Every structure is written in structure tokens, then in C-alpha cells.
Amino acid sequence: MKTINKIALVLMAFLMVVGITNAQNTKMMKKKVLFVLTSHSEKGNTGEKTGYYLSEVSHPWEVLFDAGYEIDFVSPLGGKAPVDGFDLTDAVNKKFWENSEYRHKVENTMKPSEVMVNEYAAIFFAGGHGTMWDLPDNDELQNIAAQIYEADGVVGAVCHGPSGLVNIKLSDGSYLVAGKKVNAFTNEEEEIVGLTKVVPFLLEDKLKERGVIFEKSAPWQVHVVVDQRLVTGQNPQSAHAVGEAMKELLEQEKTKYMKQSAILFPEEYTPGTTDNYCSNEVIVKGLTTQEVWKYLVNPFVWPEYYPNSSDVEFLNSNDKELYSDVRFRFKTFGFPIEAQVTEFVPPHGNEAARLAWHGWAEGDQETRLDVIHAWLIEDLPGGRVRILTQESQIGKPAQELAKTKPNPMINGHQDWLDGLVSYARSKK
Fold it and tell me: Exactly one of 190, 204, 253, 391 is catalytic; which is it?
């Protein structure tokens, strides 16, 4: 029994294989959508008034509002945004304009400095010729859009609205639109309305300069392009379809978080069929998968946050971090454990990061113990990270361990989780 207890303690060092999507539902609050309007009210030196085009606001608004999304408005200067294309014979325009809540919002838009970026799942740049003067070089709005996009949000724009996209850069220095399929108000349409010499630049040409794959239809035809989480529409006629495309993307992104990833064990280690199994999980705010992962895959720092580990060494490599198939050895509770990595999936996009190894303690039929020990780390909405660790065990010692109350493996793995979280926070 003494030997069994020792080996049981040794077990505290491992955890599981990795996961696949599971149908465990988590409630996700439906985030808001931010509409960007122009503050510019004149078409160059023509004396003609302009602003945001009403139908390019009202039609996407109706789609998203009816789908249950709350919508806020921002403009470069804040306050009342100038309106163009004011036509209340359009039933949707009338519906929007006579909604007292949204009429108030559109006449009292936020300044960019007032926007709480993490509240928004999408940002939409409404059109109107005014956008050509005040959106392309607004650094604050560009930063807001980049943050929303890089947080897995949706970016939409219609007609002249894509003028607000031309200078948006992502954190890696690349233009958001570069290499993507995009459309917008075309050179031909600008020529038809007689403003090619009035606008500061031709939007189609500028987008092509940014490396987009520009798609277009004949003038005044409905044309919407979706590339990744970017939605663009060609003209006022495309506004409703842009709203529909944004809604579809938002629902797709939402369902990603309605499912949490799970660990998938090899068949012979399926929980409920082995001699012992345990699962530990934490969900914490203020950390990311990337920030946690780097301290998990470096076993040489484990002793700094998990006291029951020491004497780490790689058996077939001089590297300092774990990777697929690498064999390593370490001590836990003073006993040597040998293991081989069986799953190694670093953080990538929205996918969960996964690490698993097969670990064993040598012995005869009475004392031999084999485990699959796995980790799963994934980002959750609201700036949270989920860390899941599980272990499934086979062997006579595992049978004895399963009878122990409280289970020492549960306590040991919780110490490991808590230590990892504290360590990652201390290194920020």
C-alpha cells in the first residue's frame, strides 16, 4: 500500500490529451454594433450639402435591430451628424427616423474617445459623400475598428463607407483590407453623379492601392462582398444586403462561443472506462491563451510555480520547450517520471491550444501505472481564458487511488492550475 500511495502521488504530475468541440453550452451576451457616421457636411467647394446617407444607415440598422442587436453611433466630432438622402417615402427610413430612441442616438453621436471598444461585436461604416473627407485619416476610428476586428469582431461598410477602411492597420502593420476581396462605390458610379473632380480621391483607386481584390457590378446593382470578417457593399442599393451579411457573420461568431472545447482521449483512455480519472478547470479574467501557453510548454519553469516538480530533462532533445513526440523526464514528489508528448497544438486564431502526454511509472503488474495527461487552453468572451486539465489512468495503483477521499490528484492538479495562473499574471 505504501508503494501504491507513492505512485498515486506521482500521478499528480500529468494531465490529458486534447479536445474537440463539445456541446456544453455557455451563455454569451449579444454584444452591440457600432455605426460610424460622417461629421462632414459639404461636397468640397460646390456649396452642396452632404453627410451620411440615410438609407445606408436605416437599412442595415433594421436588419440588425430586428435581430436583437443594440446599435450605437459615433462620428469624428460627436453630436448631431449631418444627413443626406433624406427620403421618408422609404418605409425603412421612416421606421428608423420615427424611432425616438435611435433618432436621439443619431442626433447625439458619441465622440471616438467615448467608445468602450470591448462592448462591440461589430463596427459598420455608413456611406455618404461626407465620409470621403473626414473618415480616411481619423486615427481614433481606425484604432477602434482594428481592435474590434482583431478581437474576432465584424467590420462592415457600404458605398463611400469603405473610405473609413483605407488606412486601417492591424497590429502587425498590415492594412486590414490588403489581400481581401472588397467593393465600394465605383469610379463609374462616381462619374455618373459628376463628382470625380470633387471628392479628395477615387475610392475604387485608393482601395486598389491598398492591395485589395476589387469586385464590382454594373452601376446601381446590389453587390456585397464577404471576405473573412469583412463585409463591403457597392452602393446605396446594397445597404440591406450588407446588414444581412453582417448579421450572418455575427451569428457565426456567436455560436463559436456557445460551445466549449473538450479533451478527446484515445479510446483505451476514455473517461469512465479507465481505473481512475480526474478533471480540473479554472476560468479567469485578464489573461490570454498566449500568455498562459508559454509557461506551460516550458517545463523548466514548472518548479517556479508548481513545487511538486523538479529535475526536468529532455531525453532526445536539447530544446527547452515541449513539442510533438518529445520525450522528457521530471520528478514529482521526489520520484522520476518519464513521458512523451502525444498532442501539441499551439494557440492559433480562435482554436483552443492543446498539450497532452503519455506518462508512466515503471513497475510490474501490481505497480505499473500509465496515464494520459492533457491540457486545453482557450480564450473566452470578455477577456477571459479557460484552462482545463484532465488525466485518465490505467493500472492497479489507479484502482486504489480512485478509492482515496479526498482524491489527492484533484488537489495536486488544482495547485498546478492555480500556480500557472499566478505565474502568468506576475510576468505580464
Answer: 190
| Same domain membership, residue 76 and residue 181 | yes
Q: Is there a catalytic annotation at residue 278?
A: no
407 and 274 co-located in one domain: yes
373 is catalytic: no
**C-alpha span between 138 and 166 (Å, rounded):** 11
Strand runs labelled E in 175-309: 181-182, 213-214, 224-227, 230-233, 261-264, 276-285
Contacts for 139 with CB less than 8 Å, ≥ 6 apart:
none
- The domain that holds 100 is classified in CATH as 3.40.50.880
Given the residues 40, 129, 160, 413, select the one marked as catalytic.
160
User: Which residues span the domain enclosing 391?
Assistant: 2-22+260-426
This prediction's pTM: 0.60
Q: For strand 261-264 and strand 18-21, is the pairing parallel, antiparallel, or unpaired?
A: antiparallel
Give yes or no: 159 in active site.
yes
Distance of alpha carbon 339 from alpha carbon 371, whole angstroms = 9
- Using omega within 30 degrees of 0 as the cis cutoff, is the peptide bond preceding 406 cis? yes
Which residue among the candidates 40, 59, 129, 159 is catalytic per the annotation?
Answer: 159
- Contact criterion met (CB below 8 Å) for 309 and 331: yes
Q: What is the predicted pLDDT for the residue at 362?
A: 82
> What is the average per-residue pLDDT within 58-79?
96
Q: Is residue 112 situated within a structural domain?
A: yes
Which residues are 191's β-sheet partners? none
Strand partners, 300: none
Does residue 27 lie in a domain region? no
